[in-house]
Recover the amino acids of this structure.
């Protein structure tokens, strides 16, 4: 459970080959079917971990809030007392990337994603889209 939603990790198979995977909200499930696919084969396919390096400024208790928000993720952190910055490396499932981006954006300017480049780019694209929407709304 996260944000009052129950998510289901799903894989779609055709001829015993996985062709697609994703995460859906339980309220979207309309049909289930029992298969002979085992949990072990599911984990072998879906356990695709990615890593991101993030800098957190310790303003408005951001470091503590960040650690609580991402408590379920594997992470390593180093806090620099002099600068008040915390460098955190998080590992997350590739399927959760959009959710991780949304959660990171909720921290605003106290969080900066340092790597990987494609993750930074996706965050920048979301911020740019939001800015464009704000400008469009302002002009109307």
């Amino acid at each position: 459970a996260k944000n009052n939603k129950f998510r289901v990790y799903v894989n779609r198979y055709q001829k015993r080959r996985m062709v697609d995977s994703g995460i859906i909200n339980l309220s979207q499930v309309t049909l289930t079917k029992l298969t002979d696919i085992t949990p072990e084969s599911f984990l072998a396919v879906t356990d695709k971990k990615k890593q991101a390096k993030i800098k957190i400024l310790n303003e408005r208790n951001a470091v503590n809030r960040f650690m609580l928000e991402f408590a379920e993720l594997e992470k390593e952190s180093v806090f620099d007392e002099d600068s008040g910055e915390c460098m955190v490396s998080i590992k997350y499932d590739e399927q959760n990337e959009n959710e991780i981006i949304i959660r990171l954006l909720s921290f605003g300017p106290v969080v900066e994603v340092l790597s990987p480049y494609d993750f930074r780019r996706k965050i920048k694209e979301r911020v740019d889209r939001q800015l464009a929407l704000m400008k469009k709304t302002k002009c109307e």
Summary: Residues 49-139 form a domain with the Alpha-Beta Plaits fold (CATH 3.30.70.260). The chain has a mean pLDDT of 84. Residues 58 and 82 are 11 Å apart (CA to CA). The helical segments are 39-46, 62-69, 97-105, 117-139.
